[in-house]
């Protein structure tokens, strides 16, 4: 449906998007996840033809977005980070205006506008000026203009930013319902949002794709490096030797604990293995009582943080530079 090939965007000597390649298939919800400044909006603006790429191509249903923009754009509905609303129009006037821009046939216009307004629950606001709407309703109007004409692909840049929790749930449910008829791509810096709504996640950091998979598989990836934390009493070497005999143990760290004669032991295990019972019996055989045992799964959140750590470091460095500059 959409093919992104080696996409690059440079602003002067800053590379905002760095050789991105991925494919989007029909009928799924894709999540573009990354911290602020990772390059999500820039990528979406290139996919939708708002800005040109420095290098690389985007094809939508076989049409190159720069060579055949009209055909390519016909397949897309876009809600940019700042919805393109006209504040002095009423909701109804704006929807009719968008319908004309999208060249929706006259005989379908009225019913389609009504249907979409019903879908995003803005029918009651039809006669209100957009400038008098709350942020949540403005977002819905923005979503309505993206859906109008029922394009095959709907692209939403941070669709829930600035909304209250109730509005967030409503917008998320609406996005999920779009999957029945559309392919959806949404960007977010909120991990829970992407894992709650999306079938597939693309994690972007510093303009590069650092991981892409289903939320379940990304979760499994994390499970591959589970850890077991123990507080064990006894001889340090005996503990280490006994635990080292267990299959699937990748790494053992033993550090002194606050409690006398006790050790904080951290075991990292292979794959998705549960070795708790074996640990119990090994320690019993070695006469090393376990005082505490806690298994810790690495969450999707932790993978996300790890994968995007570079961005945070750079940001912190920049902030330190700035502060140092200010102090001079
Ligand atoms: N017009 C521009 N000129 C110069 N630099 C830009 C421009 N637009 C974006 N950038 C830079 O490109 C990088 C990526 O920005 P982008 O807006 O795509 O990030 P993002 O992941 O969407 O983040 P956010 O969620 O904060 O919008 C940032 O470092 C940003 O400062």
Sheet-strand content, in percent, reads: 25-35%
Architecture (CATH level 2) name of the largest domain: 3-Layer(aba) Sandwich
Bound molecules: adenosine-5'-triphosphate
CATH superfamily of the largest domain: P-loop containing nucleotide triphosphate hydrolases
Give the total of domains. Answer: 2
Radius of gyration: 26 Å
**Low confidence ranges:** none
Structural class: alpha/beta
What does this 3D model show about the protein?
- There is one protein chain.
- The chain is of the alpha/beta class and 328 residues long.
- It folds into 2 domains: 220 residues, P-loop containing nucleotide triphosphate hydrolases (Rossmann fold); 72 residues, 2-Layer Sandwich (Alpha-Beta Plaits).
- Helices cover 39% and strands 28% of the residues.
- It is built from 12 helices and 14 strands.
- It has a 6-stranded mixed β-sheet, with helices on both faces.
- Helix 3 crosses helix 4.
- The longest helix has 19 residues.
- The site of adenosine-5'-triphosphate has 13 residues, from strand 2 and helix 1.
- Belongs to the ABC transporter superfamily.
- InterPro entries: AAA+_ATPase, ABC_transporter-like_ATP-bd, P-loop_NTPase.
- It is an enzyme of class 3 (hydrolase).
- Keywords: ATP-binding, Hydrolase, Nucleotide-binding, Transport.
What's the topology here?
Layout: E1 2-11, E2 14-24, E3 29-33, H1 40-47, E4 55-60, E5 63-64, H2 69-74, E6 76-79, H3 91-101, H4 106-119, H5 135-147, E7 153-157, H6 165-178, E8 183-188, H7 191-197, E9 200-205, E10 208-213, H8 215-223, E11 227-233, H9 236-244, E12 249-256, E13 262-269, H10 276-285, E14 290-296, H11 300-307, H12 309-327
Parallel strand pairs: 3-8, 3-9, 6-7, 7-8
Antiparallel strand pairs: 1-2, 1-4, 4-5, 9-10, 11-13, 11-14, 12-13
Helix pairs in contact: 3-4
The structure holds adenosine-5'-triphosphate.
Adenosine-5'-triphosphate binds next to β2 and α1.
Organism: Blautia obeum
Protein name: Putative ABC transporter ATP-binding protein YxlF
Keywords: ATP-binding, Hydrolase, Nucleotide-binding, Transport
């Amino acid at each position: 449906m959409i093919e992104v090939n080696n996409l690059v965007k440079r602003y002067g000597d800053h590379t905002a998007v760095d050789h991105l390649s991925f494919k989007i298939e029909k009928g799924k919800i894709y999540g573009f996840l990354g911290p602020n400044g990772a390059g999500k909006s820039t990528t979406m603006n290139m996919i939708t033809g708002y800005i040109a790429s420095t290098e690389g191509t985007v094809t939508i249903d076989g049409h190159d977005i720069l060579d055949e923009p009209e055909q390519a754009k016909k397949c897309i509905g876009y809600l940019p980070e700042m919805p393109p609303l006209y504040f002095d129009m009423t909701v109804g006037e704006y929807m009719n205006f968008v319908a004309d821009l999208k060249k929706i046939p006259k005989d379908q216009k009225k019913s389609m506008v009504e249907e979409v307004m019903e879908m995003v629950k803005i029918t009651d606001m039809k006669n209100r000026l957009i400038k008098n709407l709350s942020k949540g309703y403005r977002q819905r109007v923005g979503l309505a203009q993206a859906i109008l004409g029922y394009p095959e692909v709907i692209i939403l840049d941070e669709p829930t930013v600035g909304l209250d929790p109730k509005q967030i749930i409503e917008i998320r449910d609406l996005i999920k319902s779009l999957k029945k008829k559309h392919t959806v791509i949404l960007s977010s810096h909120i991990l829970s949002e992407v894992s709650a709504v999306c079938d597939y996640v693309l994690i972007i950091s510093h303009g590069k794709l650092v991981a892409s998979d289903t939320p379940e598989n990304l979760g499994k990836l994390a499970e591959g490096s589970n850890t077991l934390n123990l507080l064990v009493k006894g001889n340090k070497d005996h503990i280490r030797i006994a635990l080292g005999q267990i299959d699937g143990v990748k790494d053992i760290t033993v550090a002194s604990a606050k409690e006398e004669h006790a050790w904080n032991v951290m075991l990292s295990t292979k794959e998705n293995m549960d070795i708790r019972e074996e640990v119990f019996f090994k320690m019993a055989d070695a006469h090393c009582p376990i005082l505490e045992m806690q298994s810790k799964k690495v969450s999707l959140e932790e993978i996300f943080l790890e994968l995007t750590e570079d961005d945070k470091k750079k940001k912190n460095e920049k902030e330190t530079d700035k502060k140092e500059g200010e102090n001079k």
